[in-house]
Amino acid sequence: MGQDEIWDAGAARRYDTPGTGMFAPETLGPAVDRLADLAGEGRALEFAIGTGRVGIPLAERGVPVTGIEWSRHMVARLREKVDAAAVPVVEGDMAAVVVPGRFSLVYLVYNTISNILTQAGQVECFRNAARHLGPGGRFVIELWVPELRRLTPGQEAVVFTAEPGYIGLDTVDPLHQRVVSHHFRFEDASEDAKVFRTEHRYIWPAELDLMAQLAGFELESRHADWSGAEFTGESESHVSVYRVRDAARVNED
């Protein structure tokens, strides 16, 4: 199933959960604060802007935000909230589309780089970020840490969430670094479940750093969350900030 089929009109309608989940103030607020600080006085480009969960509040903070988005349905949902003058969006592949101008910040949040299902494609995503950044520009990625330690030998699936009305289950292919997330939602008055699946290629932090190096970045910081908590061996996710390497240093290497 392609990304255009996964992120269809129904998925776009269900994506926004105002005040809860990834839209909860305690989740969204620190992300917007940190990105606004990193953007400074410059422009920001969001890869996979979706329905504008982060891009819209960041623009409301005074940061000029442009987005790239694959799904026209997600863009249509965003357009119900703001017009193109407030948050311009270019439709297409975030690993290939080039937006005119230069930016001080490119960012990719909530595990979305893992929607690119090949290592080569993920490297191209880094390279496309570099194309849009001037000297000292930053590329920020929010990503989960693979939880393979939860799998016992021979086990191929793990439940990551179980709550009333919803069960989340991951099936794992360690050979190809693939995860398929199965989202089962149960209606109150029915025993039938609605199933929504998404496929991902997971990336280890060290592999992500090598991708950055290949694209001309260096790691500036890594924390466990947007609030700046220390990243440790027990962290389940990370926010990594990469900076365009100084041209003189690149020439010396």
From TrEMBL:
Superkingdom of the organism of origin: Bacteria
Pfam families for the chain: Methyltransf_25
Keywords linked to the UniProt accession: Methyltransferase, Transferase
Keyword Transferase: yes
Keyword Transferase: yes
An example molecular function term from Gene Ontology annotations: methyltransferase activity
Residue intervals of the Methyltransferase domain: 45-137
GO biological process, one term: methylation
Protein name: Methyltransferase
Species whose genome carries this gene: Winogradskya consettensis
Lineage: Bacteria, Bacillati, Actinomycetota, Actinomycetes, Micromonosporales
